[in-house]
Amino acid sequence: MKSRLLIGVAIAAFAFVAATDVSFAKASAKRHKAIPVASSTVPNCGMGMVPILHMGFTKNTWGCVKPG
User: Fold this and answer.
1) Contact in structure between 49 and 65 (CB atoms under 8 Å)
2) Of 54, 36, 53, which is closest to residue 45 (Cα–Cα)?
3) How far is CA 35 from CA 8, 21, 22, 49, in A?
4) Which residues have C-beta within 8 Å of that of residue 33, sequence separation ≥ 6?
5) pTM (2 d.p.)
6) Distance, CA of 7 to CA of 51 (rounded, Å)
């Protein structure tokens, strides 16, 4: 009796973990897509990068860097 209960609990735990992994993967894929920027001068850096304005003597340029 205990072994059947233990097997049932193990199967339920595995199903729960598998279901949450799939839902987190879908949410993560949506979150890590690059957000398009309306202005053509600011670069679309993509996942894990942020646009930074580099101010020079003659010209200002945009670049992508990792935060932090």
Assistant:
1) yes
2) 36
3) 44, 24, 23, 11
4) 47
5) 0.36
6) 51
- As a whole number of angstroms, the distance between CA 13 and CA 9 comes to 6
Amino acid (one-letter) located at 49: M
Q: Could you tell me if residue 30 is left (phi over 0), alpha (psi between -120 and 50 degrees) or otherwise beta?
A: alpha
Per-residue pLDDT of the chain (68 residues; tens, 9 = 90+): 778 888 888 888 777 777 676 666 666 666 666 555 444 577 788 888 888 888 878 877 888 888 87
Q: Which two tokens stand for residue 64?
A: 């992508």
Q: Are 45 and 51 a contacting pair, CB within 8 Å?
A: yes
